[in-house]
Design brief:
This protein is mostly beta strands and 149 residues long. It has 1 helix and 12 strands, in the order ββββββββββββα. It folds into 2 domains: 72 residues, Beta-clip-like (Beta Complex); 41 residues, no CATH class. The structure holds zinc ion (ZN). The site of zinc ion (ZN) has 6 residues, from loops. The site of zinc ion has 6 residues, from loops.
């Protein structure tokens, strides 16, 4: 596995490890081409660090990008594809200017049935790591539903 220049894995203030930029990235710039391994859901997939490619396929991130954290107000997004020409691929792309030293994050947009409480701490935090448009489908635990937040 190669080391991606411009990225460094650090201990994150958000959760576990995280990834920071070691240089500036412009809006729209490719931050990383993800190195990964494709799996199909009929196999025992470790989906903790996997991207969904569609048609039952997953792409398990095997380089530094697997440590990029979720944010409800991210500075990057993931583009994925699986085509005959290139095979499975994933790109991390800056959706706004990223400064050296800033933590890189993207919106995991989980399905509601696997949503997890979010601690991203941004003003836009939805309270859950879940697809923004599907937040209303999250079954909230009683402590949260009763207004503990
Ligand atoms: Zn959040």
């Amino acid at each position: 596995m190669g080391t991606i220049s411009g990225l460094r894995v650090i201990r994150s203030s958000v959760d576990g490890y995280g990834v920071i930029a070691t240089r500036d990235f412009a809006e729209g710039e490719l931050i990383a081409e993800v190195d990964g391994v494709m799996w199909h859901e009929r196999e025992p997939v470790d989906d903790r660090y996997s991207l969904i490619l569609g048609d039952g396929f997953f792409y398990d991130m095997v380089d530094q990008t697997r440590w990029i954290n979720h944010s409800c107000d991210p500075n990057a997004e993931v583009e994925v594809g699986n085509d005959a020409e290139r095979g499975p691929w994933a790109h991390i792309v800056a959706i706004r200017a990223v400064r050296a030293g800033e933590e890189i994050n993207y919106d995991y947009a989980f399905a509601p049935e696997v949503a997890e409480p979010c601690r991203c701490g941004t003003a836009a935090c939805r309270g859950y790591i879940v697809d923004e448009e599907l937040l209303h489908l999250v079954v909230k635990p009683p402590a949260v539903a009763s207004g503990a937040r």
